[in-house]
Amino acid sequence: MSKVITKQDLNKVFWRGIFMQFSWNYERMQALGYCWTILPVLKKIYKDDSQGLKSAVTRNLEFFNTHPYMAMPIMGISLAMEEAASDGEEVDGNAISSVKVALMGPLAGIGDSFFWFTLFPICAGIGVSLSTGGNILGPLVFLLLFNIFNIGTRYFGLQYGYKFGGDFISKLEGGNIMQRITEGTTLVGLMVLGVMTATMVSVPLGFVVGTGEQAMSLQQIFDGIMPGLVPLLLTLGVYKAIKKGMSSTVVLFAVIGIAILGAVVGVL
User: Fold this and answer.
1) CB 121, CB 193: distance < 8 Å
2) What is the DSSP string of 204-240?
3) Hey, which residues does 234 pair with through a beta bridge?
4) What are the residues whose beta carbons fall under 8 Å from the beta carbon of 104, sequence distance 6 or more?
5) pTM above 0.70, yes or no
6) C-alpha span between 85 and 43 (Å, rounded)
7) What is the percent of the chain with per-residue pLDDT over 70, rounded to a whole number?
8) pLDDT of 170-221, one tens digit each?
């Protein structure tokens, strides 16, 4: 197969892909941004075949929705298959569309598990720790750490997606790699959230029970049962409230109200 797509073409797709979400809509989600991102390369592939270009644009305007950071591997695979189709190989439009549909769901799950539930809490925890110590670099460190993975995933995902082409799916399916990655990142994310709950959520109970040498604060009593028990209960309560459909803003003001009331009556 003759190669039409160059590294410069892929770099152009990478930079355009950063703005893919700008045309998000409720009818086809990311489809318009997806097609716009790869359009210059499609024009290069089908420069002498107007009907082929029309068909390629039409199928790349079909419904598409995945984690925005994980869209690049799918673009790389799609472009490799479009290039093969334009060269007369046995790759039809239905196969290209099927690959997009097959990958966007699993990669969305991996992206959500890794970026939102694992990487974001870790980077935010590091940034918050620096900020609470008075270090102005806290927000910058958070942005730097998070975007190293963000940009790296986009860039190398596009490059390797194009390199592997249609074989990418079979490589991922072998040994249930996708399932293992999703489960692993979810587990790490939950562990990080548990650590952040214990170290960053503070509920100081100042109410004293008893008198004299026998006097003990509620904080000491709960710490004797299980250190960090009250922050854990508060976190679980907030989680349950949001899961039941309560607005996060309402939950936030409720926690603030409880804190003020507890301070007034001397419990907190």
Assistant:
1) yes
2) ----EESSGGG-EEHHHHHHHH-TTHHHHHHHHHHHH
3) none
4) 64, 65, 66, 71, 74
5) no
6) 14
7) 81
8) 555 555 655 665 566 566 666 766 766 766 777 777 666 666 666 676 777 7
